[in-house]
UniProtKB/TrEMBL annotation:
<feature type="domain" description="TonB-dependent receptor-like beta-barrel">
    <location>
        <begin position="252"/>
        <end position="663"/>
    </location>
</feature>
<protein>
    <submittedName>
        <fullName>TonB-dependent siderophore receptor</fullName>
    </submittedName>
</protein>
<keyword id="KW-0408">Iron</keyword>
<feature type="signal peptide">
    <location>
        <begin position="1"/>
        <end position="15"/>
    </location>
</feature>
<keyword id="KW-0798">TonB box</keyword>
<keyword id="KW-1134">Transmembrane beta strand</keyword>
<dbReference type="Pfam" id="PF07715">
    <property type="entry name" value="Plug"/>
</dbReference>
<dbReference type="InterPro" id="IPR010105">
    <property type="entry name" value="TonB_sidphr_rcpt"/>
</dbReference>
<dbReference type="Pfam" id="PF00593">
    <property type="entry name" value="TonB_dep_Rec_b-barrel"/>
</dbReference>
<keyword id="KW-0472">Membrane</keyword>
<keyword id="KW-0813">Transport</keyword>
<keyword id="KW-0675">Receptor</keyword>
<dbReference type="InterPro" id="IPR000531">
    <property type="entry name" value="Beta-barrel_TonB"/>
</dbReference>
<keyword id="KW-0998">Cell outer membrane</keyword>
<keyword id="KW-0410">Iron transport</keyword>
<comment type="similarity">
    <text>Belongs to the TonB-dependent receptor family.</text>
</comment>
<dbReference type="GO" id="GO:0015344">
    <property type="term" value="F:siderophore uptake transmembrane transporter activity"/>
</dbReference>
Length: 693
């Protein structure tokens, strides 16, 4: 069933992304059929790496694509699960409601929706971002100087939204899982007028569950609606809105202490949680977007996108700090706080792309302008009783009483603006030589204060991009590329002057292949990534911290594979090895990042029983560590987690899927990004009944 859905989604995506010359006619009902030979674990093309529509083999940068089929097969229902299955990306779950991501040794802060950047100017990702709204998710590793105005040389994550399909389609599913998980998901698309020039699509998700963690109980509601209208022969308007809310009880703020007062490592039950019974963290995100595209003629197209996002959070939290005593407990202290935040972002993007003739050959060109304004207002109401010692094991039983949150108040109020002009061109130098080049010129400014510290920053920079692709034959190509990016920062040095921006560079080279008529994409790359002038606290002047800029460099190689290995066998797999991640002094830095990761997801349709599909997933990472003091280091040994899946197509419309995660019940920490952590989920499973039309 899920395979059938995947086929439908794959086919409809092609229809939705049809070339401009086919978009002039009204939408028509199309019946889509498919077999296991369809390219369900890979993509024909992507615009995520260079503003131009290119195949993966033609793109001179490392790209992984997580398709709808892969997400459905392995129940990758949130972005953490998607990125944890992706080549070269690590998911740092520091708490139950906040997450960081890293790639090639550095934090991932670049996120896009349909190729339009959403600046992460306020830090990490909060809540549980659902993936039911997306046809696929592209991950471009390294700096992405053409697509992103600012950021780190790590990776860019591009969410490709579902759009109305060419004909009527519908699906629904019910999932029941471990810890009383219940998930209902619906997706329907249909034309909205008789001629088919107006079509709409709606997606609805409701999920609730308890947890393996004591007292933790998350739930979320997701709703998405999009309408696409053919206003004229050459003009199309798309308008959509997303509503997503996360409600968490018993959420962690901070995590578990990792060593005792005698220096020995702590060991807790997997279910250990430092939250109080009254702890909660609620987030609500509303995103509205409008996209207008117009075909000018001669293959030229102009497109404008306007987006408005509001993100609100409201929480009552308990942070537990200190060093516990191994015998008798105690040694931990309470820090209760009530936190509210209101973030608003407005984004505009206009681009023009098409082909031009030069030297007797056709070349590609894209240029445009983007603008963003982000505002944040937040306030912390500190609770009475900060610093109170928690005797015995009361830090872990949820019994700390809810205080009044009137001890003191602090907060933030600041605004960030960014203006970007971009230009990209792909020159067809010869039948087997292509050059992708361009630049991105950005001005970024911020004003305001955060918890008594100025957030002022102002910087302008033009970053280049150049990539060369040589077609060895019809299936294989070699490539090399260099791209740069920057990120302003507000931290000050000892003289009170804001530090210069962080500067990132990525140089890589490799081989790519599109095998079996493009049904299987493979790539291998070596890379070198630098991130210079990152703020690091260097000392204090009175009550104020001052910073210095530090440099780091990573080197390594990676392999990526996605698509059909044979008629019945699909796979998505990747290996990344950081051979070096060091600072100016040559010493290893960011040791919480595994130096080697392996990701494998594969499914097989049983030839003698084509209604049955089975598969497995493997995620392995090498040892990680974090220095707690000069003499104490916490180490998470290398580990692997195994997942299994099976799906049986009951009839044309109905299917049953079973998924099992962490089959070996491996106990391990979620992250060593901070000096606290908690344990990942033990063995768990789910069953999903799916219907499609």
């Amino acid at each position: 069933m899920l395979l059938a859905l995947s086929m439908i989604y794959s086919g409809l995506s092609v229809a939705a992304d049809a070339p401009a010359d086919t978009a002039d006619t009204p939408m028509q009902t199309v019946t889509v059929t498919g077999t296991a030979e369809d390219k369900i674990y890979t993509a024909n093309s992507t615009k995520s790496a260079g503003k131009l529509e290119l195949s993966l083999r033609e793109t001179p940068q490392s790209v992984s694509v997580v398709t709808r089929a892969l997400m459905d097969d392995f129940k990758l229902d949130n972005i953490n699960a998607v990125l944890a299955s992706t080549t070269g990306v690590t998911v740092e779950k520091v708490e139950t409601s906040r997450t960081y991501y890293t790639a090639r040794g550095f934090d991932v802060v670049n996120f896009q929706y349909d190729g339009v950047g959403m600046p992460q100017v306020f830090g990490n990702v909060q809540g549980d971002i659902d993936t039911a709204l997306y046809d696929r998710i592209d991950i471009v590793r390294g700096a992405n100087g053409l697509m992103a105005s600012t950021g780190n040389p790590s990776a860019t994550v591009n969410f490709v939204r579902k759009r109305p399909t060419a004909g009527t389609s519908a699906s629904a599913s019910l999932t029941l899982g471990s810890w009383n998980q219940r998930r209902i998901e619906g997706d329907v698309s249909t034309k909205l007028n008789e001629s088919g020039t107006v079509a709409g699509r709606a997606v609805l998700v409701r999920q609730e569950s308890d947890s393996y963690l004591d007292r933790y109980s998350p739930k979320k509601t997701v709703a998405y609606a999009v309408i696409e209208a053919q206003l004229a022969r050459d003009t199309r308007l798309t308008v959509g809105h997303t509503y997503e809310t996360n409600r968490g009880k018993g959420v962690m703020w901070g995590a578990l202490p990792l060593y005792y007062a005698d220096g020995s490592p702590t060991s807790y039950p997997v279910s250990a949680n430092t939250s109080a019974n009254w702890s909660r963290w609620d987030t609500t995100t509303n995103t509205t977007f409008a996209e207008l595209s117009h075909t000018i003629g001669d293959g030229w197209k102009v497109q404008g996108t306007l987006s408005y996002i509001t993100d609100k959070s409201d929480s009552d939290l308990l942070y537990v700090y200190g060093t516990p005593n191994k015998v008798g407990g105690g040694g931990l202290y309470a820090y209760p706080s009530q936190y509210n935040a209101d973030q608003k972002q407005t984004l505009a993007d206009v681009s023009v792309d098409g082909k031009f003739a030069l030297g007797g050959r056709q070349h590609d060109l894209s240029f445009g302008y983007s603008w963003s304004r982000s505002k944040l207002n937040d306030v912390s109401h500190y609770g009475q009783g900060i610093g109170t010692e928690m005797p015995g094991q009361t830090a872990f039983d949820g019994s700390y009483p809810m205080p009044s949150f009137d001890a003191s108040t602090d907060g933030s109020s600041y605004e960030d603006r960014r203006n970007t002009i971009f230009l990209a061109a792909r020159f067809n130098l010869a039948d087997d030589w292509k050059v992708l080049t361009g630049l991105n010129s950005t001005r970024a400014r911020s004003n305001g204060n955060s918890y008594g510290t100025s957030k002022y920053k102002s910087a302008s920079k033009t970053t280049p991009y150049v990539g060369v692709v040589y077609d060895i034959n019809r299936e294989w190509s070699a490539y090399a590329s260099h791209t740069e990016i920057f990120n302003p920062q507000s931290e000050i040095d000892a003289t009170g002057t804001p530090l210069d921006p962080v500067e990132g560079k990525t140089t890589e080279a490799g081989l790519k292949a599109a095998l079996f008529n493009g049904k299987l994409n493979a790539s291998g790359a070596v890379f070198k990534t630098q991130q210079d002038n990152t703020a690091e606290q260097a000392g204090m002047i009175g009550a104020k911290a001052y910073y210095r800029g530090v440099n780091a460099e990573s080197q390594g190689y990676e392999f990526d594979l996605s698509g059909d290995l044979s008629k019945n066998w699909q796979a998505s797999a990747g290996l990344t090895r950081l051979t070096s991640l060091k600072g100016d002094d040559g010493k290893a830095v960011r040791t919480f990042i595994p130096r080697t990761t392996l990701r494998v997801n594969t499914t097989y349709t049983v030839p003698g029983l084509p209604a049955l599909k089975v598969g497995g997933s493997l995620a392995w990472q090498s040892e990680t560590s974090v220095a707690q003091t000069d003499t104490i280091r916490t180490v998470q040994g290398a580990y692997a987690t195994l997942g299994l899946m099976a799906r049986y197509q009951i009839d044309k419309h109905l299917a049953l899927s079973l998924n099992l995660n962490n089959v070996t019940d491996k106990k391990h920490l979620t992250s060593l990004y901070w000096t606290q952590s908690y344990y990942a989920a033990p063995r768990n499973g789910s069953a999903t009944l799916s219907w499609s039309y």
